Amino acid sequence: MKFNNFSKITSNILSSRLTGFFRDVLFANYLGANILSDAFLFAYRLPNLFRRIFAEGAVNSVLIPMFINQKKENEDRAMEFFWSIFLIFLLVTSALSIFIFIFKFDVISILAPGFIDNKNQFIFASQLLPITFPFLIFVTLSAVLSSILNINGKFFLPSFLSVILNVCMILALFLFKSDAHFALAWSLIIAGIIQLLLLFINLRSLNLIFKLSINGIISNIYYLKIFLKRLSYSVFGSGIVQLNIFISMIFASLVGEGTISYIYYADRIIDLPFALVAVAISVTLLPYLSKNILDEEKNVNAFNQTIIFCLIFSIPSVFGLLYLSHDIVNILFGRGEFQASDVLITSKILIVYSFSLPGYMFAKICNQVFFSNERVDLPVIASIPTFLLNLLLCYFLYQSLGAIGLAIASTLSVWLNVVIQILFLKMYFLNFFKKIKLFDHVKIFKILFCSLIMFLTILLIEYLFSFSLFLDLFVKILFGAIIYFISLNLLRLEEFKLVYKSKKFN
User: Fold this and answer.
1) How many Å is the maximal CA-CA distance in the chain?
2) CB atoms within 10 A of CB 341
3) Sign of the C-alpha dihedral, residues 71, 193, 13, 52?
4) Which residue, of 247, 323, 471, 492, has the greatest Cβ tally within 10 A?
């Protein structure tokens, strides 16, 4: 697996997150954290939650391995199989969008019961949801088309799509400011259309044009049945995982005004290191594992290096967020309609979320082993007790601890999922499990030690210098990161160099 692919994806993900942060800064400034912003974020997040169920789960865990295997046997039949899957997703997401349009009041009552007590908020959400939800159609089909580009070594455009969405939303916020709720909703649809058109143009340049016939569908009936069976496992598994987010949303609506917004902003910040490393690695790791499924040594080395690589970024992120969370939230969102009290609550949620970061990355990498071996049932089983724990903790903690309790529930459930996936690796992939190093104590100690040095550097800078809030934070992060990576280099921890070295796992 070449890490120049990782660099391409990471650069685009960084662009996506930067434009996403700018969008959220404008969002907080113009819309704040109140009943109307909660209503919009509910309508905005709902199609994105379903996207994760259909697009991320099904495409990564089912479609890519099956397509690669079929392409080895018959490339034309593999392409007809791919376009058959495209048609299936088009029909399913369209049907779901129609369902949401018809039953929008019932959906809001179930998933955001706290809105019922506020008539204006409930009506506002019911007006926004029919506009935002069809975005699911475009974003799911874009994920399907992106998969075929990734398989053909084209990573730039698929990882750039979210930048297009962010730009459209930024323009809506600039133009309509505090009245941008409906403009933002329509910007999702416009961005979805643009994304899909660009992907079709890119596919055509590779001569991967739409090709589907009745005979093609009939010849792939056997594989389509297998796909639908595995898809059901994947959707169920992804659905269980995403149900945790649904549960958090339900209880957040019950906690009170602004809670959905607080959780959203904290989630956006914690998503940056997760997306930059774990998502980018998993996108390129899964095809590598699938292509080398019979070469266990290569896969073991890839797994071990990926785990350490993720820890190199996740552990210092925890150290940094423990101390800098309030400053980060304040600089990003603390202006306009976003009050000081909103900053304080969001920063506390962010601190709790930071402890889940290594767990999220670890679980993402473990998933790739199961997916590459076409054991999509195992993540499904692992997600069930995770969901139950989150549900119980949310129920018992939301009244006493509010939004902080929901964050604690989410974090603990993530680590339970990690423990279960490790047990599954041992139970079902024993030879692989014996060779991997889940906890390379020497390397982890080096990472912890360098993270501590970074933390002490940040404290020293704060003691010696005093600039503006923004410059203070910039200097702390910059010099903290420099000292951290210099320390890693002095301790000869080589994995961090993979970010800029274009080489294969060895």
Assistant:
1) 74
2) 10
3) negative
4) 247
For every one of its 506 residues, what pLDDT tens digit does the chain have, with 9 covering 90 and above?
444 555 566 666 677 778 888 999 999 999 988 999 999 999 998 998 888 777 665 665 677 778 888 877 777 777 888 888 888 889 989 999 999 999 999 999 999 999 998 899 999 999 999 999 999 999 989 988 888 887 777 777 777 888 999 999 999 999 999 999 999 999 999 999 999 999 988 888 777 776 766 776 777 788 888 888 877 776 776 666 677 777 888 899 999 888 999 998 998 888 877 766 666 665 555 555 656 555 667 778 778 878 888 888 889 999 999 999 999 999 989 888 888 999 999 999 999 999 998 998 888 888 778 877 777 778 878 888 998 999 999 999 999 999 999 999 999 999 999 999 999 999 988 888 888 887 888 889 999 999 999 999 999 998 888 778 888 899 999 999 999 989 988 888 776 665 544 444 44
Q: What is the DSSP string of 266-319?
A: HHHHHHHHIIIIIIHHHHHHHHHHHHTTT-HHHHHHHHHHHHHHHHHHHHHHHH
| Encoded tokens for 2 | 């070449």
The closest alpha carbon to 96, from 143, 62, 22, 46, belongs to 46
Could you state, in order of their start, the residue ranges of all structural domains in the chain? Answer: 3-499
- Note whether 302 and 495 are within 8 A (CB): no
0.90 surpassed by pTM: no
Could you tell me the two tokens for 101? 């349009």
Provide DSSP, 362-431: HHHHHHHHHHHTT-THHHHHHHHHHHHHHHHHHHHHHHHHTHHHHHHHHHHHHHHHHHHHHHHHHHH-HH
Q: Is the dihedral of CA 54, 45, 279, 200 positive or negative?
A: positive
| Cβ within 8 Å of residue 123, ≥6 positions away | none
Closest CA to 410 of 233, 261, 243: 243
DSSP character string of 126-180:
HHHHHHHTTHHHHHHHHHHHHHHHHHTT--HHHHHHHHHHHHHHHHHHHHHGGG-
The values of phi and psi at residue 501, to 5°, are -90, 125
CA distance 61 to 55: 10
CA distance linking residue 140 with residue 373, whole number of Å: 24
